[in-house]
Amino acid sequence: WFQTELFGLTVLLPVHTMFSFLARRSNRLFTRFTRAAHSLTATSSHKDGLLVRVIPALEDNYMYLALEPSSMKAVAIDPVDADVLLNEVDVLGLDLQAVLTTHHHHDHDGGNDAIAAAIPGVRIYGSDERVAATTDLVKAGAVIKAFDHVSIAVMDTSYHTNTHIAYFCNVLNDETAPPALFAGDALFVGGCGRLFEGTAEDMFTTFERFRQLPPDTVVYGGHEYTVSNLSFAHGLMPESKAIMESLDLAQRQRKDGCPTVPTTLQQEYQHNVFLQCATAEDLRLLREMKDAA
What we know:
Distance between the termini: 51 Å
Number of strands: 15
Strand content: 25-35%
Low-confidence stretches: 1-13, 25-35
């Protein structure tokens, strides 16, 4: 339960009711920031332990605001548009603890400087000194303390860049709550990132690490590439019912302006052709085909 002031009255609201109300108010007040966005803002729930705001940015990016309802603490993941992110934090009354950056590309760390200036003392995590405004350099295996009852573990997901990381979040007081993976450009719905600094072997190793996570892990990728990814997969495997159904759903979601994220690892095993590759060489050839498509 959450105590708050509504219309001059002090009331107790269930966590989900409280957040739903504030999220709707946020959407109404800040449509001027999102009118030209590629998708609607959405909310994903990991039971009562963790809520995630899916916030569109730039032409096809997603940034995320993960919050713990019991404490109203929050972290931002790859918040490239600082204005939208900070207003979301302000309207929802959140205590922004940290910024989690997956890699140094500007469409992921482009809001870090502005957030650091707006919130003195906020921790900005990254695995590379090239990440803007970094206060804490972290490597695989590190655990970040930002919440009371949600753990954040750093994963090595290098291949898109040599120092790309992902953040694996687990609700500690509810075993039924699915974990969350903020994957940046290491994993998309139906696809994966390009090989800019790493190799196909690095990509294969990263995917092997994903396979060690629970299949119900909810994956939040960095871009809205789903229709393109699944169209490519459908061209390769036109007989696949899983790919066809996922592509049809994604097309309907995009027609309505809805984000196609998040996904789950289990869903990705069914329709993501990159995760189905048996060798690093298969991955290299498939990535080259997708790049040329």
